[in-house]
Amino acid sequence: MPLIQLMIVLVVVGVALWLINNYIPMDATIKKILNVVVIVVVILWLLSIFGLLGPMSGPLIQLVVALVVVGVALWLINNYIPMDATIKKILNVVVIIVVLLWLLSIFGLLGPMSGMYVGRY
Fold first, then answer.
1. CA-wise closest residue to 42 among 71, 22, 12
2. How does DSSP assign 43-73, residue by residue?
3. 3-state DSSP assignment of residue 20
């Protein structure tokens, strides 16, 4: 990617974040999370452009984005959807177990999950 295109993309991302932070009414915590997520994605994108992530750059970025999406979704559910605290704890535990199983499967420490069945086959 030519340097001028890289600079244009970074300026557009910076201006978009500035506009969002100054003109869109949101909770301050959500703005902080949005800023961190955008910064992490831009850093990973820059590292992949310059070849510093190696051959795993595509899957690594997808993994980080998926984990961020799951984390933000769980945080939003915990903070903004009214439900009993026990149900929230159960939901958190289930999501964490599913994500851990998924990560173990991705890194080859657990066999393919398609071979697992619940109940009769």
1. 12
2. HHHHHHHTT-SGGGHHHHHHHHHHHHHHHHH
3. helix
Encode pLDDT of 16-41 as tens digits. Answer: 889 988 988 888 888 888 888 888 87
Q: Which H or E run contains 97?
A: helix 85-106
How is residue 83 annotated by DSSP? -
pLDDT surpasses 90 at 90: yes
The tokens for 32 are: 């902080």
Residue 115 to residue 8: CA distance in whole angstroms: 47
Residue with tokens 């992530």: 53
Tokens of 25: 């009414």
DSSP state of 114: G
Cα–Cα–Cα angle for 8, 12, 13, rounded to 5 degrees: 120
